[in-house]
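Title: Prediction job returns without error message
Component: structure pipeline
Severity: low
Priority: P3
Assignee: unassigned

Description:
Job completed but the reporter wants confirmation the result is attached to the right record. Sequence as submitted:
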Amino acid sequence: MAILGAHMSIAGGYHLAAERAAQLGCDCVQIFTKPTTQWHGPPIPPEQAQRFQEAIRRHGLCCPYGHDSYLVNLASPKKRLWKKSIDAFVEEMHRAELLGLRWLVFHPGAYLEGDVSAGLQRVIMALKEVFYQTTGLQVGCLVETTAGQGTNLGYRFEHLAEILAHSPVPERMGVCFDTCHVFAAGYPLTPRQAWETTFEDFDRVVGLGQVRCFHLNDSLRPCGSRVDRHAHIGQGQIGPEPFRWLLQDTRFQQIPMYLETPKGTAPDGQDWDRKNLALLRQWAEEKA
């Protein structure tokens, strides 16, 4: 059975993210370790980290993962911003370790000027420094597939393969596969043959064994638009079928899948996360 959860707010305390996830019936939960608009967050008191971990255990949640700040740009050609991004990412790794998170999801960044190759080399160099400064930590990094807006890297599977190939600590690296981003980047997910081809291409270039989590998002924009706009499950350009195929694929039954769809209340009065999760669970159980 698929492992399903959602990204939850840490407003009011880290433990409340676990409480919110449990109330929705999540199996797993993803959080930010600090406000995404800040380079540096306030220190996490050990008792807060302990309370979060206790809430995770109490509610039987698995796979608590983190996502780094969107300010971080490990591909930046501007030395000051590049160094600032490394420092912020190292801090995020320590925060994730303290909270007991297994993986920290990050975007490769935008190269801004020059070319893709130079941007990828800066990401590779940045990660080498990050791993050097976090020697001894257990938390690892998951590079996320991106839609490729502007000069953002990660929209081609080859970008991910290049980054992973140069990791100094391969066991602390992996991939987060975002359905909206992959689709918007130009990899079709329908019809079924196109879905199969996309995953075959990913396996050939990167390796399915590198996938440590999925972000489940439909897309407001069409395939190849390279615009990152999430939609509710089955209500965007991807449609319901690719999610059915993914949830029923035996290769991915032990890989956590997190919703990152818009928050709020649906027209029928239900919480959107609850509604999306219920739909996903229904599809996951169909085959069984």
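Comment from assignee: result matches the submitted record. The longest strand covers residues 62-67.
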